[in-house]
Structure formats: structure tokens, C-alpha cells
Specification:
The complex is a heterodimer of chains A (237) and B (125). With 237 residues, chain A is an alpha/beta fold. Chain A contains 10 helices and 8 strands. Strand 1 of chain A pairs antiparallel with strand 6 of chain B.
Amino acid sequence: MKEFRILEIKQSVFADNDRQAGELRRELRERGVFLLNLMSSPGAGKTTTLMRTIEALKATLRIGVMEADIDSDVDARTIAGSGARVIQLHTGGMCHLDAAMTRQGLEGLGAGDKESSRKAGPSLPQDIDLAILENVGNLVCPAEFDTGASKNAMILSVPEGDDKPLKYPLMFSVCDVVLINKIDVLPYFDFDLEKCREYIRMRNPGARVIPVCARTGEGMKEWTDWLLEQVKDWREG
Amino acid sequence: MCDGAREGERSMHELGVVFHIMDSLEKVALENQVTEISKVVLELGEVSTVLEDYLQSCWKWAIRKRELFAGAELIVEKLPALTWCDACRQTYPTVEYGKICPHCGSPETWLLQGNEFNIKEIEVR
């Protein structure tokens, strides 16, 4: 019988996921697929925002959506009716998606792709310009696991309060863009927009902040223009 | 424990984390011709999002599912959280004082250490 010995590992628990995420990102870039990781608390308005976004961009981009929040009120069929390809991801009770699960989701989107379904085995989609991952609705765990996304976005809604960036610093530090949603109800809440911008800037000076109201459409053009620009840069980069 | 989970839907952050650790170590085992892992030592920051109690109970459940880890002990070494103040260029304990520097009152502070979550070493044969 062999003797026990010590193996020094010295690696972050997240290292393996980070490597897989990096690989996925590289493959997506080769295929010209932009992956947006969309995060928020439950009820921040992801569904309405997604619907508006698809509406605005579907003439320009081929869009695929992966619904990960199995308990959300998002009706996958409603989104399918909007002109985007949709699949539902089952996280098996897990509170976040990792790079491996995201890859499976993308392969699911790829299965609806005529070109790649002719080949043997699952593969990433070829005929999608913008893939949107609707991550599980919470502000803690999804921030820790790199999904392989090209860009990370989060939605913070006015009723949640302007101090969220202080309470969930990691989430705000990984985001490239923060949508402050439901600005139509600003007069009824104790929410200081400028203070909120400042809190986000303290955590992440590079994050773009866009106040929107997905329901009325206010501010949505600034958001979809930003997104379109990112997709273009991704393909040219 | 995942504090974003809703009532009645207990999402276990720690279980996902345990599977990540085991996946990584299975690769290490393959590369090093290891057939048995008897001990895993982790370094866990004081303000990482993982709770040791939950981690231990998930571990005890998961080691029965994977042969390589049968009976393996999980040791968690805690790393204290320290925050750095940009204004007065001193450090202070994060858990006690939070975001505001106790030396000068500045909010321009950054976590120096304490959110680590590393696999330090394993005992194998």
C-alpha cells in the first residue's frame, strides 16, 4: 500500500471555472457570437427589459435567449413570440450558473441552428449575433462565477433602494453596465439617483449607468445603442 | 448559504462550490496518479460568501457520491478580513468596522484580503 503524501494545490476554487469561461469566450468570439450575462434581483424587471430590447434590435441582430431563472415570471413563450430563439436552462436548484452550464445552454441554442445541427454532436450556435443569458435572480452568487460572457449587465430597480451598490459590492464591480429601471416611480421612493451613481462609481469607475423605464421605454434607446455598439466592437475586435 | 434565494426555494451555494472543488481535484488526481484523497485543506476568507458549516455538511454528503473522496476530511483555514484606507493609508479589521475607516472616517476604503477561497493542499496516496 502506498504512503499518504501532501500535494500542494494553491489555486482558487474558482480557477477551473475561470479557465472554462475564458475558453468559451474565445470560441464565441471566433464565431462572432456576443454573449450578454444579465443579472438582477427577482422582480427588477428583466422580462420587460428583455422584451423591449429584443423589439428594438431584432431587425438588426439575430437574438437567442437562455432563461436560467426557473422560478421567474418570465414566460419563455412570450419571449419566443418576440422573434428571439429561447431555451430554458435548468439549474437544478443551484443559485448561479457557471461556465459549463452556460456552454450547455448555448449548445441548446445551437441545436435550433440548421447549419450546426447537421454536424455530429452538440456545438455552439453559428447563426446568432446576440445571445442573452438571463442569470438566476440574486445579487451574490452569479457575481462570483464567470459565465464566459462578453459583457455583464445588471438591472437595479428603484424600489430596491439606492444603497444596493454598498450592500452587494462584488456584483457592481463585475458589471460593465448598470440599468437603473423603473425610473417612472422615482417620485414615490426615497431613491437618490445621483447618490446611487456615486456608490456605483466608488465600486466600479468603469461601469456605464443608464437610467431607464422598460415599461414606458424611457432611456431604452441609450441602452440598446450601447448594446449594439458592444456587439459591433466584439466582432471587429 | 445563498441569501438571494426566495422563501421555499433553498438554493445551496455551498453544494455547487463543493462540486467545483471536487471537479478540480479529480483532474489533479488524474495528473498525479492519485487513487485516494484523505484530506482537503481550504483557505477561506472571513468575508467570502461561503459559510463553513454549510460547506462541511455539503462535503459530508458529496464525499459519499464520489469514490476518490470516500471518507475525506475537509479542513477549513480562516483568513481574517482586512480593509485598506486610501485616505490615511492604514489597514483595519473589516468585520468590526465595515466600509468606514475607524482611523480617519473616510469611505474611500478597499478590501485588502478576506474574500479568498483557495484550495491550499490535499493529502493523497
